[in-house]
Amino acid sequence: MGKGGEGRQAPVKDGLMKRISSSGKLKSITSVADDLLVLKSIWFNKASGDDHAERLESFYGPQAEAYDNFRSKFLWGRKPMLAACAARLAERSDLVWVDVGGGTGENVDMMSEYLPLDTFKTIYVVDLCKSLCEQARRKVEAKGWKNVVVVEGDACTFAPPADEKATLVTFSYSLSMIPPFHSAVDRAISYLDPKVGLLGVADFFVPSKYDLPLRQMTWLRRFFWRATFDTDNIDIGPERRNYLDHRLSRVWEMNSEGSIPYVPYLRAPYYVWVGHVPQLATVLAENKVEAPPMFPPTFLYTQSWEDPRPDMEVLKIKKDDTVLTLTSGGCNALNLLLHGAGNVVSVDCNPAQSALLELKATGIRQLQFNDFWKMFGEGKHLGIDKIYEAKLAPFMTQTSLRFWSSRLWYFRQGLYYQGGMGKVVYYVQLFANLLGLGGSLDRVANAPTLAQQRSAWDAIWIVKFCLQSPTWLVDFITRFFAILCFNRFVMWFGAGVPCKQYCLIHKDGLRISSYVARTFDGVARNSHLRKDNYFYYNCLTGRFLPDNCPSYLIKENFTALKSGLINNLTISTGTFMDALTSRTYTKVILMDHVDWQDLGQARTLAATLAKHVAPGGRVIWRSAALCPPYANIIREAGFDVQCLQRADEGYMDRVNMYSSFYVAVRKQKKTAGKASIAA
């Protein structure tokens, strides 16, 4: 019976599949035919006519029906522009949008991915080309859009009726095709709401020779692309964006390049620019784009590797503190905000570390806690592409955009297995599984009590081997593993331990294998991973837990940061010295930064600290050395220096990765009166 049923159904299924297959092939053939029609118009039908409207019609008329399909593979800036504008208008209603040069109304359809169209009171699609406007009207009718008005008119003269103010004005690949662009921009500004209105532009571009750093390109590319687009009466020179910068205050921009259909290798440069009517605060502030320094392609650390608990006990943070810290994973910079620091400057010479902290800060501002927790608590978010496009990318700097746009897969594979240290963690876990240690390490990570954790640790066969075997055999094995796993290459690119720091460890009479063993054994015996050590729990599992995580991942703290504390954070990419000399600080966190320097550099740093740390201000650092040679240099520069902890005196803290922990207090300056009395 079953077989007979299957036999009767088979022809039906086969026929259905054939129809679906034929339909797919037909769509593919139609798509290629449409593309060829557009390409024919671009390559062979040159614009002609006595005025701009006639030239547009002669160029776009023959390709109007095929316009949308081809442009979806070419105009890559439209979606980022719409997403950036929508993200900034998401809390508003009764919006008025004027899409200047809106063509077929395709932008309206795209905008529905980011904002419900009923959020808009009225949407005006303005275009001078008759054929494109006809396509737009058909689309409006087919989609049933009641609030969309198609206007066949000139961008230089159009204005919404009854002095209606626009909340949003967009030029989507249209400003480069408007010869009197000054008039078009001026006209748009005339009806843009001066308080909340945004003007967004997406277009192709070439920069001027001495343009802003992230806009620049070689003279050959400037010449080639401008000449190529000029054949179709499209002027992609820098004048239009320069005028936007002159008339408006830039809120956000990105510069990128996108592929061209049926043209291999070549990628056309495009930009997205969002601005608003200048306010006093933005007029007084310099608005610029910085060039990223050269550095490795990704970050070393996904979390900060200094225990913030003893830091806070020593620093005694107050609300009027201005704190300078190295960024690392960014966790401790956010923790400083939660402890009440008035201003936190977080600096790193690796732009990837800045990009990681910027993503965290942007996520705090723009996301709900559940999405934020998936990204940075669990380290995975299957919907990262949509969230990034709609909520995160519109608020990030171009350097961070370039970094994250090609690395969203980090959040599909697991964030905490990425970067230098993340890869070390991944391969250590893989190696442990090959040795049959996976279950043992899981028992250590999830032991209900510290006593059970110690027992699980002692039960690991490698640990038992080291405790019970002859010293000479253990010494031989550890030397072998040191060469394999703890060589200078792995320690630098995986753990961020440079050669100078490596040498400090050796000067204390320790082999690197002994140093690492001391670190892990101390943690396993003294710190309960499951309940109170999120550093190593994360290493063993690739995630955090709600009750065992950095402070910024606790829901109440996330809310506090979102409510305004995050605005007290400054993220800087550059050298520590540049950040230090930029202002006066009351607290400075050096981490293990000075371990990386020679004594000459340490003297320069100490002298600079003396100038830029306020009297009574505190400086803390950790070192891989028991007695770092630069401690006396900082003391001689005018600080009271105290060693708070040493590894040879026992367990240090939850990280337990350093040999010493220091605090230096800037001495108070003596007044002239006190000095004469003392004399």
Automatic annotation (TrEMBL):
Q: Cite the CDD domains for this sequence.
A: AdoMet_MTases
Methyltransferase domain ranges (all copies): 98-194
Mind telling me what this protein is named?
Methyltransferase domain-containing protein
| Annotated SUPFAM superfamilies | S-adenosyl-L-methionine-dependent methyltransferases
Organism from which the protein derives? Coccomyxa viridis
